[in-house]
């Protein structure tokens, strides 16, 4: 689910304040950028398959960055809110100093 200023309240309440700040930082990163990013919240569980012998990873409640132009493509890996905060902070610092 694409997270925006209008729907960020769908995430758990304890994560909302940080996520709102990250949306503002992401807006700064996207300003005048060729490739625009958005935050995707993984709001579904991984399907269990009885044929699998290894544990199925479940990324429910995690975040990922995706491209606006091709929303199927994920940038990086699934992240917790703290990891997403670190990545967006790094991107923001890079853009500020570039």
Characterize the structure shown.
The chain is α+β, with helices and mostly antiparallel strands and 98 residues long. It has one domain (2-81). It has helices spanning 16-30, 81-97; strands at residues 2-3, 37-41, 63-67, 74-79. Strands 1-2-3-4 form a 4-stranded antiparallel beta sheet. Strand 3 (63-67) and strand 4 form a beta hairpin. Helix 1 (16-30) runs parallel beside helix 2. It is globular. It starts with a strand and ends with a helix. The mean pLDDT is 91.
The geometry reads as: globular
Question: What structural class do you assign from the helix and strand content?
Answer: alpha+beta
Order of strands, main sheet, comes to 1-2-3-4
The residue-averaged pLDDT reads 91
Number of domains: 1
The count of DSSP E runs of length 2 or more, i.e. the number of strands, is 4
**What is the N-to-C order of secondary-structure elements (H for helix, E for strand)?**
EHEEEH
Task: Summarize the model shown.
The chain has 98 residues and is of the alpha+beta class.
Itemize the secondary structure elements and their pairings.
Blueprint: E1 2-3, H1 16-30, E2 37-41, E3 63-67, E4 74-79, H2 81-97
Antiparallel strand pairs: 1-2, 2-3, 3-4
Helix pairs in contact: 1-2
